[in-house]
Design brief:
Mo-molybdopterin binds at residues 83, 86-87, 140, 175, 228, 239-241. By secondary structure, the chain is α+β, with helices and mostly antiparallel strands. It has helices spanning 19-35, 49-52, 76-79, 94-97, 122-128, 155-162, 200-203, 256-260, 303-306, and strands at 107-112, 118-121, 132-139, 144-154, 170-175, 195-199, 209-214, 217-218, 228-230, 243-249, 284-287, 293-295. It binds the ligand Nc1nc2c(c(=O)[nH]1)N[C@H]1C(S)=C(S)[C@@H](COP(=O)(O)O)O[C@H]1N2 and molybdenum atom.
């Protein structure tokens, strides 16, 4: 993982489609559908990609005002053009390569130590939960940060659906495996598929969020469509993308980066400005859309909600 090179990728303003055009086009289509004027074989222009997602009608969801931030939101044109998604390469222009990902049909297996194991399609899962928008900070271990409006549902709700058994102590998440589509997965020195894990206590903390949308729309592929995790008090690599399996277990999962380099990336990975990465300081971070350097906060500013999770674990490597 490397430090960002700011703005090299920025596309000219003239090539960016303003959000307002997408939205207007959607309401025009909705109006036509209501009058029966929208018929098969219509010569209307094809709508933008967001409308092709079968879950598009669920967005935007109502914002939950309990999750606010004292930072400016990162404009979509920055956050959607600077991503980490190693399945599609280790460069930062993977937004292009990631468009190859097929997000329907998409099934998620929930298994392991649960009373209610199941394999559920993403659109069926979306019917069982209620979506809300939350503004969250995101702090990558590479020392850049963004603030974005995720849409999703509490991970605790998914835990309830699964009905875990008493012995379950951890959740282990797994990303899809498809080297034909995701060229990064042909790099055999990486331990594919990408894996992450949290404790049951972390999973049921209010902040743990299953994300299916961003900026009031279904997740664009480069963000980890159709479903990813957001754990805003931990380094970004814990927020695993494009999840296909969630296993409840009594064994602590070994995550992708921990397996690659355990001396640099641990299981807990809570944000702490005072604990340096072996190769760089974590005291500050670069704000993605301004390039400004700002101080990093303990637990990325979420200490009030999560510090209690780590009482009695002082001997663990909690901050890397
Ligand atoms: N499957 C998978 N999940 C992943 C990654 C990845 O490479 N593969 N990168 C992680 C890292 S390092 C970060 S910072 C965030 C980036 O999320 P974003 O691209 O939506 O900003 O995704 C995380 N989740
Ligand atoms: Mo990251």
């Amino acid at each position: 993982m490397h430090i960002i090179r700011k703005k090299g990728w920025e596309i000219p303003e003239s090539q960016a489609t303003p959000e307002s055009i997408f939205l207007n086009r959607r309401s025009v289509l909705a109006g036509l559908a209501g009058t029966g004027a929208l018929i098969a074989g219509s010569t209307l222009p094809r709508p933008a990609f967001a409308e092709e997602d079968p879950s598009a009608g669920l967005y935007p969801a109502k914002r939950n005002e309990a999750y606010v931030v004292d930072r400016e939101l990162t404009p979509e044109k920055y956050s959607s053009r600077y991503n980490n998604f190693y399945e599609f390469g280790s460069h930062k222009q993977i937004f292009n390569a990631a468009q190859a990902l097929e997000t329907r049909p998409w099934e998620i297996a929930i298994d392991g130590m649960v009373d209610n194991p199941q394999t559920i399609g993403i659109d069926d899962l979306l019917k069982k939960v209620s979506l809300e928008e939350r503004l969250y900070r995101h702090r990558c271990v590479e020392a850049w940060s963004m603030t974005v409006p995720w849409t999703g549902f509490a991970l605790a709700d998914l835990v309830k659906l699964a009905s875990p058994q008493a012995g379950a102590k951890y959740l282990r998440f797994e990303t899809f495996m498809d080297p034909d589509t995701a060229s990064g997965q042909r790099a055999s020195w990486y331990p594919w598929p990408y894996v992450e894990g949290v404790t049951m206590e972390e999973a049921t903390n209010d902040l743990s969020f299953m994300v299916t949308g961003i900026y009031g729309k279904p997740l664009a592929k480069q963000f980890g469509a159709p479903i990813r995790l957001a754990l805003p008090w931990k380094y970004g690599f814990k927020s695993i993308k494009s999840i296909v399996k969630i296993t409840f277990t009594d064994e602590r999962p070994v995550s992708f980066w921990e397996e690659i380099q355990g001396s640099e990336y641990g299981f807990w990975a809570n944000v702490n400005p005072e604990v340096s990465h072996p190769r760089w300081s974590q005291a500050q971070e670069t704000v993605l859309h301004t390039g400004e350097r700002v101080p990093t906060l303990l637990f990325n500013g979420y200490g009030e909600q999560v510090a209690g999770l780590y009482k009695g674990l002082e001997n663990e490597r909690l901050y890397m």
